[in-house]
Input
Amino acid sequence: MKLSEFDYSLPKERIAQYPAKEREKCRLMVLDRKAHTVQHKVFEDIAGYFRKGDCLVLNDTKVMPARLFGRRKTGGKVEIFLLDTPSSEKDQVAEALIRPSARLKEGERIALESGDEAEILGRGPIGRHVRFSRAIDSILNEAGHVPLPPYIDRPDEPSDRHDYQTVYSAREGATASPTAGLHFTNELLDKIRGLGVNIAYVTLHTNYGTFAPVKVDAVEDHRMHKEYFELSAEAARTIIGSKKDGGSIFAVGTTTARVLEHCASMIANALDPAEVKTCSGHTDLFIYPGFKFRVVDHLITNFHLPKSTLLLLVSAFAGKEFILGAYRQAIETDYRFFSYGDAMLIV
Output
């Protein structure tokens, strides 16, 4: 498959710069894979698609304030974007994307807004290694900014600390939000739970791996950056029980879908599609057309960038032509795209 097959043209004004004023009031496009139909709803209407015994699976990762700003001795501005969560509270070295990277020499020290220093070290697998003058966690808590993606063309604002976080976020470690979950409110989750729907939580610390650009022409040659995940015994029991009792599994976001399918792939006997294995570690599972989903029945997601791994995943789930046709319709009918944009339910 050629990457160019997953391209589309998006007017800049369709990229959402701010979230909907009320999370659950954003638009919802519903794609039915069997009937091949497209419907237009409001996100809170999603409750009507659940049945008693279904299972809603959410990624409970919490976004950390992963962007830091500082200045060189020359006065030039520098942005440091951490790629991963520190492995311990005392960590002082991390890999980061630096702007402007090309101008910064190894050993150069950056004065941060917090009054701390960051020393630029050698190159890592993706970015540059940076040594901080004290524990990274402490610096982030005092001076970190919300890691808004680059297509949101504005500085982060105080409201983003709430808006760019799901209401059920619990485990800090992400450097990007699992944005499909941003549309849920506690009230909507209570309503869904009240229908007799089981709710399970997994963790995948969304980072650069999810959003890294595909730089190869042949889709199959792309390699995902590893991301940390966990699926607990309790979550596995809930998911397996729902599946075996005839319920459907609703995955919220591509990150949740990757955790579930990774854990299903860890089972030696693949004859039972209801099984997922309790496990944790790092996943680099890359899902693209031709992939056989074993756990996820329905997918709740956002509208994704052209030629991205996320667009490839939803194309694997619903079919490339169906997805690209729905995207064309979304553009024509003024849907809002990407992290702060509208939502899609694929049934």
